[in-house]
Write a structure and sequence with these properties.
Elements (H helix, E strand, L loop, with lengths): L2 E6 L5 E6 L5 E5 L5 H13 L5 E6 L5 E7 L2 E6 L5 H14 L4 E4 L10 H5 L1
Parallel strand pairs: 1-7
Antiparallel strand pairs: 1-2, 2-3, 3-6, 4-5, 5-6
Length: 121
Amino acid sequence: MATFVISKKLSGHYKYELTSRRGKTIFISNAFELRFECEDEIELLKKSIEKLFFMRFRSPAGKFYFKIILNDKELAVSRKYSTQLMLEKGINEILKYGAKAEYLDFSKSEDIFPPAEDVFG
């Protein structure tokens, strides 16, 4: 099952990404000023999976990637794929699991791990 992951960039803006069942990033969203904007766009994306348009590209280095378009608005850009087949598998994963994907919010806490003093004494 794929998972949406919300995180905070060093700039203070928020983003979300969809990760595959194996933990690989499929795509990364544009930046948002507020966290709830990420949640709203994730819900919109989940409800509109069948309306998404995938623009396929090839980079000058020969890698393949896509942009996700909904209602003439670019929502996200995929990671770079080494083959066109892998790109299509990424798109299929979105279509198959995107509507059912849960989301994790890692933007609330700066420190995921407790301080070393608490762990090691």
